[in-house]
Structures are given as C-alpha cells and as structure tokens.
Design goal:
The complex is a heterodimer of chains A (696) and B (179). Chain A has 696 residues and is α/β, with parallel strands linked by helices. Chain A has 6 domains: 70 residues; 97 residues, Beta-Lactamase, CATH 3.30.450.20; 67 residues, Helix Hairpins (Orthogonal Bundle); 157 residues, Heat Shock Protein 90, CATH 3.30.565.10; 137 residues, Response regulator (Rossmann fold), CATH 3.40.50; 109 residues. Helices cover 55% and strands 18% of the residues of chain A. In chain A, helix 19 runs antiparallel to helix 20. The longest helix of chain A has 67 residues. Chain A is elongated and about 175 Å long. The termini of chain A are far apart. Helices cover 54% and strands 18% of the residues of chain B. In chain B, helix 1 crosses helix 2, helix 4 packs across helix 7 and helix 6 crosses helix 7. Chain B is globular, with a radius of gyration of 16 Å. The chains are: A alpha/beta (696), B alpha+beta (179). At the A-B interface, helix 1 of A face helix 2 of B. Bound molecules: protoporphyrin IX containing FE (HEM).
C-alpha cells in the first residue's frame, strides 16, 4: 500500500514536471518560431542570391554564346558513340541541317575523314585535341573546319560525351591550297630550268664531242703544219669550253640541290697521298715542292664523302699550285679532337704563292669572280673552283677559311667532323707485281647505238682502228632488233634518240632479246646524276659522258672485254714474266725510273694524259713568246716521265733558246714538236691500256 | 544530464521496486530539481549520482550492477523510440561502430547540451572488436549493459571482456569476440 503522502508527492512532482515541460516546450516553440523566421529570411536572401547568380550565369552564358556566334563557332554536344545531343545555330548553318535534323544523327556521318574514329578515341581519353576535318554539308558540299574537343562529365565525374567547337577554316584552307599550288608552280619552273640546263648541256656537249672527237681523228691523218696548228686551236677552244661547261653544270647541280653527300668508309691517307702524287707530277714543271703531312692519329678509315672531299682538296691544291711559281704547297691533315668514334680533322692547304689582298679575299668565294682579272687571264679557269669548294663544304657541314698575305702566300683551311670506323688504314702501296696479257678485242662483238651521225663516225672509226668488230644501230628500236638476232659482248647505248630512247631499249633488251646478260654502257651528254642513276636503274652497268676522248672509250672496252678474257687465260699469264714498253718509248729510262712498279708508271701515264693534252693544246705559234716559253717549261719534264725523251729534248732545247731565235725558227720548231707530240700521245694512250690490263 | 535519463531511470525503479522506492531515493537526496524531471529538460549529473547511490543503499545492490541493469533497461527504450538507428545496421559490430560516428552525433544535434562519451572502435579481426570508452562521467558499467543488449539484439554468440585503462574508470577497454 502506498502512503497518501507519497501519492500526493508523486502527483505534485508530475504536475510540476508537466508545467516544466510545457514551459520548456513553449520556450522551444518560441525558439523554433524565431529560427523559422530567420530561416525564412535566410531563404529569401538565398533566393535573391541564387536569382542574381543565375541571372549572371545566364548573362555570361549569353555572353559566351554571343561570342561563339560572333566568332561563328559551331557547337555540338555528342555522346560517347558520337550521336548528336545538342547543336547551336552556327553549327546548323555550317552543316546546312536544322536542329531537328541534326538531333541523334551521328557526327561520323557528317565528316569526310576516315581517321575520325581514332580522333574520337582521343576525345574519350580526356585529352583535349584539335583536328582539321572536312564537314559534309546537307547539299553534299564540303567545309573545312578546325574542331577542338572537350570531354563532358556527369555529376559523378563519369565521362558521358564530348563537346566539339567548330571553327570554319575554309578560307585558310583556300589560302593554303593557293600557296601550295604557287610553290608547286615555282618548283615546276625550277625543274624546267634544270631540264633546260640538262638539254643545253646535251645540245652543247654533243657537238663539242664531235669537235673534240673529230679533231682527235684528224690528228692521226696527214696534216701539214698549218693545218695542225689550226687543229690545235680548235682543240684548245673546245677543251676550255668543256671545262667551263662542267664548272657551270657543277654550280647548277649544287644550286638545284642535286649534289648529295654519300657517306662511305675510306682511307683518308690514301686519298691524300694520291692527291700529293698528282701534284708532284705537275710541280716537276717548276721549282715547287709538294709536301704532305698526315697526323699519325689518323690510324683508321673514316666515314665521310670521299668524292666530295677529294674534289675540294683537288680544287684547293690546284689553286695553290696555279698561283705558286716557286717554294712549296703544303697539304696537311691534323686531328684537332678525337673521341672514340668521332674525330675533328683540320685540313690545310698552304702555299708560298702570290697571295691576296684584303679586298681580293672578300671576293674569291663569290660566283664567277676571281681575285683579279689579271690572274684569271694569266692562269685560266672560270673562277668557280673556290665557290664550288665552299658550297661542297657547306654540304659536308664545314666552312672554308682563308688567310693570305699579298706576295707571301695563302692558306686555305677547313675542319671536318667525321666518324672513325674500326677499319685500320691500308699501308701505302708498295710495288705489287702482276702479270697480264696484252689487250685484245679479237672475236668480240660490240653493238653501238647512236643517232648522231658525227658521233657515229667518231666511234666507228676508233673501233676500226682498234680492230673491234661492231654493228651500228641508229635508234633504240634498231638496237633491239639487232639484239634479237645476234649476241654481243658489249652494247653502247645513247640515251636520247628518236623512235625509241636508250632507257626503253635497254629495258626491252634486258627482257626480250638474246642479250639479256650483255653489259650495256650509256652514252650520255647529260651530266645530271639523276639521269645517270636512271640509266643504271634501267639496267645499264656504266656510262660514258660526252664528250669523250678515245682514251675513255678504250677504258670501257678494256674493262668489259679484256678482263674477262684474262680471267680465262690465267695460265698463259703465269708464263709472262715481264712487261715490255712500246719500242718507240725510252725503255731504258722507264725501266730505270719505275723498275717493276708498273702501277706507279701507270699512274704517271694517266696523270700525263689527264693534264698534258690541255697544256699542249695551248701551245701555238700565234701565242706571245713568253706564253710558249711557260708551256714548254711546264711540259718538257713530263714528256721525259712517260718515256718521250726525244720530244722532251725538242721541247727543252726550244725552251732554252726561244727568246734568242727568230720567230720563223720558233714557228718551225713548234710545228715539229706538235707533230711529234700528236703521234706520241697515241702511243701513250695505248700504253696506258696495256699497263692497265697488265696491272689488273 | 538529459532529463530522459532521469525519467527512464525513475521509471525503471518504479517498475522494479514500486513508487515508494522512487519516493524514497528522491526524499533521501538533496536535489536542486526537487526530484521533478521531464524528459525534455536538463539536470545536473550529480543528481543522477545521488539517486543511484541512494538506490544502492536501499536495495543493497552495488552501484555498478545498478548501472549495468539501467543500461540494459535503457536499451529497450532506445529500441522503441529510435528504431531507425538499429535498422541501418546489419550486425552488432557495425551498430557499435555507429555509436560514435553516427548515433551520438545525431543525439548531439537533437540535444545540443547532451554530454556524451567518446567511443573508439577498432576491428581487430573478422570476429573481434575493440571498443574504448572515454568519459568523465565514468559510466562504463552502463555502457556494458547497452553493449550486451546490442549484441544479443543482433543475435550474436559472443564473449565480452572489460579492462580499465585508467583506474578511475574514465577510460575503459571493451573486447568483444564472436564465437
Ligand atoms: C539508439 C541508440 C542510442 C541513443 C539514442 C543514445 C542516446 C543517449 C543519450 C540521450 C544520452 C544522454 C546524454 C546526456 O544526458 O547528456 C546517452 C548517454 C550515454 N550513451 Fe547513448 N545512446 C544510444 C546508444 C548507446 C549505446 C549502444 C551505448 C553503448 C555503448 C551508449 C552509451 C552511452 C553512455 C555510456 C552514456 C552515458 C554518458 C557518458 O557515459 O558520458 N549509447 N546516450
């Protein structure tokens, strides 16, 4: 039983508690009301804020939209498959479709570009990319646009599509196209120019070939002294014309970018020694030492362009030699830096010649300008050599330096960075001995294909002289017909001919005749390498550039007709122990001079044939006495070197007295020297061929 | 301390021992509130201590056991008043995890003057959980009652051990292991 007091207290407590709770709740309700009020105010403030924000947003959106519209940017939103979700007015105008038509169309159907899928892939991997594409408009026309893409993400940062901003670049494209066309036109024009040069060179070389060739033939006929002199004037002029032509063509080749660097691994020391030997021979004519120093660090073969390097060094050396009457020309190669596979070599060509003034120095590398006109008159040449050297060195990544003091000498130098191979240099050539048969063309058949009648006569008369049996075709078609009936050991093929050209004929002979394996040699007046390459591509094995001298032709005959014979007759070779020079030559002297080193003999004979005819062609009774004196001074020792002792004596004795005797005597003696020379030179030519086969 | 704790406590006492005992422990204490409690009010924690120790004396039961029993009792109140707190958890461990990270946070939101303990829970393994109680009110026995009820509510077979990290009882480590 519960006490009533207790019950009273319980009731009391509960009433009080209720009141307490009521007042707490009332207070809370008031708080709540106030909180609500505040919340409402906050809400209102928030709403105002949101509104102004969204207005701002709307405004800025509008602003950007306007910018886009003003900039005429087309906008398209696509999903991951490329289906269009949204477009703007500009995009609609660009494509020519309405907004409704575009909806759900796939953008791939709107572009003229197969690589578009990969571009889309790019967009998928969030990368922002821009691409140039052609849009296909509703009417089927195309529009060039630059598209810049950006990924679109949903709230949970998942990639859901992309937006493409299109910019109309058709104007730029038009411009670009016009520029490309203009460039192509310019290139065509340049090509036309080159073609013109090639044709010109053909046009000039063909008659020049005839002139030189016929002159050589004339030489071996009976001529009186006067006729001989005229003939040598002709040869002199033709030779000058030829060297001028080849210089000009060199320049135009360089200008046209036709000269390319062809790297090869070669023995630099061998190249340098050969250059020295060449000039040693030339220098015998005057009181001039040719010196060569090679850095002992150059132990291995290098990787560079041996032909271009040789051409530059030859140019510099012949320049030095030309302008130095006495003293020395010093060629040196010095290693400036060597690191495992790389080496920097400095080349120096130093002479004790006439030197140049400051003002002359400034001009020497320019086209067609020599240090002074006097020099150019005195020493001949077109003045293009240094310019060509400078250009070639630029191709090799180098540049030419020059130091010079007037009256003291000049020094040309350049540095070349090359790779060093692991091949050691060859030891200098000793006297190697080999035996060979005398060249014979017996039983060999040659086909000549040549349309120019002068050249025909030139070649055929040479072949008759050398007892080569041949057929003559005047165009490619005729050649092909011959080749289908007879088999030949060698075919000469002119490149430019009517009815059927040389290349086409070669290709046909290689496939449709019984002469598929016969070596075919191109006869070309074109000096362009590309022309020659084409010839080689079409199946020809070699080429002779017009104009050619008998020697060139014979070289080729030997290479393709004689060596094969030799290979068959190695047994006969073994029996022959020694070589015998032509009996007309000073055999005693030659044997004393070269002993068994027939290679050196051959080299000197070759150098002789390369240099002396040019000098001799300038020997003339119409010259100033001093000019003839100089020529005789230069040539008389060289005659001796090839065993033409009588001729050498004739030249020397005239040289010694030329200033003191009457001009009529000079005239007669020059005539007889030339007469003898023209006979002797043929002996030298055939001697070279004999020596070549012997040495090989 | 929140009024609900007082009203629930007194309800429990009335239920177990009759209103005389309620009246007794109130009358035996010197209470600022005069023993008048409403669940929405807030009262000094010291009053709770007085009530509990008076009850202990009266019925001759140790205070820890009383608090443990009160914890168990209060669990049922929580269960019927706040079913949402239980429904969001699938097992005992995740429910215990949620005291500190969720339930007491919600409580604090509702009663911003509530004084709540800190619970630091760590899952030692699939079957073991460590729960560290920290509070200046030293009511770990009350917590133990709540923990036991929670675990059996989720129908777990388990053992519960208890270790004082601080001798005064303000820091206690519970280790609950599922069998
Ligand atoms: C639905 C679940 C729960 C609710 C609504 C709840 C609510 C509350 C409230 C209102 C208080 C009083 C605070 C004050 O008076 O200032 C409290 C205190 C307390 N709660 Fe909870 N609680 C819950 C679950 C738990 C559980 C599962 C535990 C067990 C570990 C626990 C442990 C405690 C402890 C020990 C106190 C006493 C205060 C202290 O020790 O500092 N609570 N809780």
């Amino acid at each position: 039983m519960i006490d009533t007091d207790i019950l009273q207290r319980k009731l009391d407590r509960e009433r009080k508690a209720r009141k307490q709770a009521e007042s707490i709740l009332e207070k809370k309700a008031l708080e709540l009301y106030q909180a609500n009020l505040e919340l409402k105010q906050f809400n209102e403030a928030l709403e105002i804020k949101v509104q102004s924000r969204s207005e701002a947003l709307f405004r800025s959106e509008k602003k950007y939209r306007e910018i886009m519209e003003n900039m005429r940017l087309g906008l398209v939103e696509i999903d991951l498959e490329g289906n269009i979700l949204k477009t703007n007015e500009v995009y609609q105008k660009m494509t020519g479709y309405s907004a409704e038509e575009l909806l759900h169309k796939n953008v791939k159907t709107l572009v003229n570009f197969t690589a578009f899928d990969s571009a889309l892939e790019d967009f998928k991997s969030l990368a922002q990319t821009s691409i140039e594409l052609e849009l296909i408009k509703k009417d089927g026309r195309f529009l060039w646009v630059l598209i810049s893409g950006a990924p679109i993400y949903n709230e949970s940062k998942k990639l859901v599509g992309r937006i493409g901003i299109h910019y109309d670049i058709s104007e730029q494209k038009k411009l670009e196209k016009a520029l490309i066309e203009a460039k192509e036109k310019a290139e065509q024009a340049q090509q036309a120019e080159q073609q013109f040069l090639a044709n010109m060179s053909h046009e000039i070389r063909t008659p020049l070939n005839a002139i030189i060739g016929m002159s050589h033939l004339l030489e071996s006929t009976k001529l009186d002294q006067e006729q001989q002199e005229y003939l040598h004037l002709i040869l002199n002029g033709a030779n000058l014309l030829q060297s001028l032509l080849s210089d000009i063509l060199d320049i135009s080749k360089i200008d046209a970018g036709k000269v390319t660097v062809v790297h090869d691994i070669f023995d630099l020391t061998e190249v340098l020694r050969r250059i020295k030997e060449t000039f040693l021979f030339k220098a015998r004519e005057k009181d001039l030492r040719i010196e060569l120093s090679i850095d002992p660090l150059i132990t291995h073969q290098i990787n560079s362009d041996p032909l271009l390097l040789n051409q530059v060094l030859m140019n510099l050396m012949s320049n030095a030699e030309k302008f130095t009457e006495s003293g020395s020309v010093h060629l040196s190669a010095k290693v400036l830096q060597k690191r495992e596979e790389k080496m920097t070599i400095q080349f120096l060509v130093q002479d004790t010649g006439i030197g140049m003034s400051e003002e002359q120095l400034n001009r020497i590398f320019k086209r067609f300008q020599q240090a002074n006109e006097l020099i150019s008159r005195d020493f001949g040449g077109t003045g293009l050599g240094l310019f060509i050297s400078k250009k070639i060195l630029q191709l090799l990544g180098s540049d030419i330096q020059v130091q010079s003091t007037l009256g003291k000498g000049s020094c040309f130098s350049f540095e070349l960075e090359t790779e060093v191979s692991n091949l050691p240099n060859k030891p200098p050539k000793g006297s190697q001995q080999s035996n060979a048969l005398v060249a014979t063309y017996k039983g060999k058949k040659v086909l000549i294909t040549e349309d120019n009648s002068m050249n025909q006569r030139y070649i055929t008369s040479l072949f008759k002289k050398w007892q080569v049996s041949f057929d003559l075709a005047t165009n490619g078609l005729e050649a092909l017909e011959y080749c289908q009936q007879k088999s030949y050991d060698l075919i000469f093929m002119d490149l430019q001919m009517p009815i059927m050209g040389g290349m086409e004929a070669t290709e046909k002979i290689k496939t449709q005749s019984i002469n598929q394996k016969t070596p075919i040699i191109a006869l070309t007046a074109s000096t362009f390498l590309s022309q020659k390459n084409k010839a080689l591509e079409s199946g020809m094995v070699d080429f002779i550039s017009k104009p050619f001298v008998p020697f060139h032709l014979k070289k080729v005959l030997d290479r393709y007709l004689v060596q094969e014979d030799l290979a068959l007759q190695t047994q006969a070779q073994a029996k022959l122990q020694s070589y015998s020079y032509h009996t007309e030559l000073d055999v005693d002297f030659l044997q004393e001079a070269y002993g068994n080193d027939f290679e050196s003999a051959l080299e000197l004979f070759e150098i002789f044939i390369e240099t002396v005819p040019e000098q001799m062609s300038r020997l003339s009774i119409q010259n100033e006495t001093s000019d003839n004196y100089h020529i005789l001074h230069k040539v008389h020792p060289t005659f001796k070197m090839v065993g033409l002792s009588d001729l050498s004596d004739m030249a020397k004795s005239l040289h010694d007295v030329i200033a003191d005797i009457p001009s009529i005597d000079i005239e007669n003696r020059i005539k007889s020297i030339l007469e003898k020379y023209h006979k002797d030179v043929l002996i030298i030519e055939s001697e070279i061929i004999k020596l070549r086969t012997y040495v090989a | 301390m929140k009024g609900i704790v007082f009203t629930e406590f007194l309800d429990m006492v009335e239920q177990e021992f009759g209103y005389e005992t309620v009246d007794h422990i109130i009358e035996a204490s010197k209470l600022e509130s005069g023993g008048v409690y409403t669940s929405v009010g807030t009262y000094p924690f010291s009053e709770m201590l007085q009530l509990v120790s008076n009850l202990s004396e009266k019925i001759e039961v140790e205070i820890p056991s009383l608090l443990y029993a009160f914890g168990k009792y209060l669990f049922n109140t929580f269960l019927s008043s706040y079913p949402a707190f239980f429904n969001r958890c699938e097992d005992g461990f995740s429910f215990l995890d949620s005291i500190d990270s969720y339930i007491h946070i919600e409580v604090k939101k509702l009663y911003h003057d509530a004084e709540l303990p800190a619970f630091q829970s760590t899952r030692l393994s699939e079957s073991q959980m460590e729960l560290i109680y920290r509070s200046s009110r030293k009511m770990s026995d009350f917590a133990e009652g709540l923990i036991d009820k929670s675990m059996s509510y989720y129908k777990h077979d388990y053992t519960l051990s208890k270790e004082l990290l601080n001798p005064d009882g303000s820091e206690v480590k519970f280790l609950i292991t599922l069998k």
